[in-house]
Amino acid sequence: MRVLGLDESDRVFSVVRLCTAYGLGTGLFFPLLAGAEATLLPQQPRSEALFEIIESFDPSVLFATPSVYGQLARDAEEAGLSQPLRNTRACVSGAEGMPPKLIPKIKAVLGTDIDVGYSLTEAFQFVISGVAGSGRPGACGRPVPGLEARIVDEHGVPVGADVIGTLQIRGETVLSGYWNQQPSGEQFDDGWFTTRDRFMRDEQGHYYHCGRADDLFKVGGKWVSPTEVERALIAHEAVWECAVIGADDEDGLAKPLAFVVTNVGHEPGDELEQTLREYVKEELAPYKYPRWIEFVSKLPKGPTGKVLRYKLRAGGARRAETASDT
Potential cystine with 284: which of 23, 47, 185, 288 (Cβ 3.0-4.6 Å)? Predict the structure, then answer.
């Protein structure tokens, strides 16, 4: 509310399911609290229906996921539509990470900047927010007013800038415990709630999501963040979207395995696989590059658009065993 400044003059369009905290807040509670007008979409968010609602309802604030914004940008470009979101004063993206290369396309094709952030069910909504592109690529922003955030190591000690650690948050909207469960000192300490997410903060105070605690894995004794590898891959023109997991090689050692959806005009194959490997080697530390790349037509996603990594892990070991390690 304080970040967006919603009031009774706003028209809110939330393309997010009410069964999620993101959707319940943006589609119902926040507009009601502000006295704003709101509309919801009862069916799958297909571009044709979204464009019709945008034209007729003329929303001042739009809430959606990066996947929906990417879909709108692609379909608007194909249909020759001229910046259909140019009249919105705020377009908010949540539920999954915003690919850095999608930001300028959204600006050019849809005619809007994007407010990105990191939301948490335990705090009901966004705890970190900012305008996409205001920090380094991949930044989620800064803590929203009324909430504190810090990054700690495995002993709960705050770490400095550019160090990956676990995010802790504190504020009035953060839960004090779970229903029918005794509060645990591991998650609740002096008002601080310990999340399951790894973050990094730069010198300017921008926060970067590095994945879930159980997503990270070690290669040669060094932590690898799948999100960091994904950001490097998706910056290549041949990659539309991707997901990275850890998979065991023939010796039982974890190595990065990437699932890649190719962009229009690029054919998957051995040549592209080698090109992408070398590209990531140049962008990141050599131990972080994907040892195997699996080209897929789409990634498994949940209702909110988040990639379901557990489905990728199910077949990851088998694919790694049958692939050549280069």
Answer: 288
